[in-house]
Amino acid sequence: MRILLVEDDARIAADTGRALEAAGYRAVPCANGEDAWFLGDTEDFDLIVLDLGLPGMDGLAVLKRWRAGGRTMPVLVLTARGTWVERVEGIDAGADDYLPKPFRMEELVARVRALIRRSVGQATAVLTAGRLTVDTRTMAVAVDGVPVSVSPLEYRLLAYLAHHRARVVPPTELLDHLYGDEDAREANALEAVVARLRRKLGPGVVETRRGFGYTLAGTDAC
After folding, report:
1. pLDDT above 90 (res 180)
2. In this model, does residue 199 exceed pLDDT 80?
3. Is the pLDDT of residue 222 over 90?
4. How far is CA 6 from CA 32, 58, 85, 94, 98, in A?
5. Domains of the chain with bracketed CATH
C-alpha cells in the first residue's frame, strides 16, 4: 500500500515515515505544496497524509485542487491547526480525517488503516479471502487458521490483493504500490515474489489470470 507523506518538518516526516513503513506501508515523502499537488494529481496513492502548513502552496489549497480535479484518494490531514473551525474547514475541503499535532504514532497508523479499509469497502482490520486471512493490525497472515511467516514485501503484496479482492490487480499496479522508486520494479521481480508466496501458502491461494494480473482465490474477482 502506497502513501504520500506530505510534511515539511524533517523530524516529523522521518518519524512518521518509519512508523508507516513498520506498519507495512510504502511511504513516499514530500516537503512542499507544489510538489505534493503534482504527485497527488499524477500518481496513484492508497492514502495521503497531508500537513496544512506547507511552503509553496498551503495544504488546504492543495487539497481543494485535488478534489476539484476529481481526485478521490483518502486524505488524512495532519496539522498543528487544532481549532474546531479549522477542522471543519479541512473536512469541508475534502479531508477524510483530521489528526491535530502533537499525536501518537499508534493513533495515526490506526486511522490510516481504517481510512484505507473504508476506501475499498472493507469493514474490519482482519481481511479474509477464501482460505487466507490477513490481519492488518498485526501484519499476520494465516491459511486455514495456520500462521504463515512472510517477509515485509510478501505481506504488502498479500495485503494489497486482500484490500482489492473484488477485482484482478494488474502487474503494473502491483509494482507501483509495492516498490519504491529506488527498488527493482521489473515484472520478473514481482513473479518471483508471487512464486515464493505460493510455496509458503500452498496451492489455490494466489491466482494468476493470464493477461490480466493477480487475485486471491475464493473472491469471485473480475
Report:
1. no
2. yes
3. no
4. 7, 11, 22, 16, 14
5. 2-120 (3.40.50.2300), 126-216 (1.10.10.10)
